[in-house]
Amino acid sequence: MIKRFEKYLRDISLNIRRETELDMNRRGFVAASLGLIAVFFLSSIPFVAQAYRKTVEEKPDRIKIAGPDELRVGDSKTFAYPNPNDPAILVRVSEKEYRSYHIKCTHLQCPIYWDKTSGKLMCPCHNGFFSVEDGSVLAGPPQRSLPSIKLSIKKDGIYAVGVIHGTHGGKTV
């Protein structure tokens, strides 16, 4: 009965030849498993090193955005922070208050702009509107608020000192 069953298994498994298979005992199975784990561990080291290097490099620098009297109330200025490929905007909302955000819309990455007359940050691609106070979504298809940029106001100018992702209601001044 067992031989018939074994013959049946050989017949349905066309490419498996049991005569040429290695006998796998527990010791061999454990050794093969440990060897496979070691291969996976060693092959992941470059990816872990690259991820660690990115986290170390992501510490943003402090850059000067504007002079102390460069912007009037309601004016804006674009700049790049923390990398040259990260466009951002600085808006002067009152005499002593500034707000700054990345200008890639959180919907489809279209560039947003400051509409001085409406007092909102606008995305022209799909009519998205963001609050200049905290970068939150006011209307349109975007679901997430704009990443805000931490500002430091000194006597000699306004500096970008960090990025805050996903905040609601956080002031940047």
UniProtKB/TrEMBL annotation:
Top-rank lineage group of the source organism: Bacteria
Protein keywords: 2Fe-2S, Disulfide bond, Iron, Iron-sulfur, Membrane, Metal-binding, Transmembrane, Transmembrane helix
InterPro entries attached to this UniProt entry: Rieske_2Fe-2S (IPR017941), Rieske_2Fe-2S_sf (IPR036922), Rieske_Fe-S_prot (IPR014349)
One Pfam family from the record: Rieske
Domain spans labelled Rieske: 63-160
GO molecular function terms attached to this record: 2 iron, 2 sulfur cluster binding; metal ion binding; monooxygenase activity; oxidoreductase activity, acting on paired donors, with incorporation or reduction of molecular oxygen
Protein name as catalogued: (2Fe-2S)-binding protein
TM regions (residue ranges): 28-49
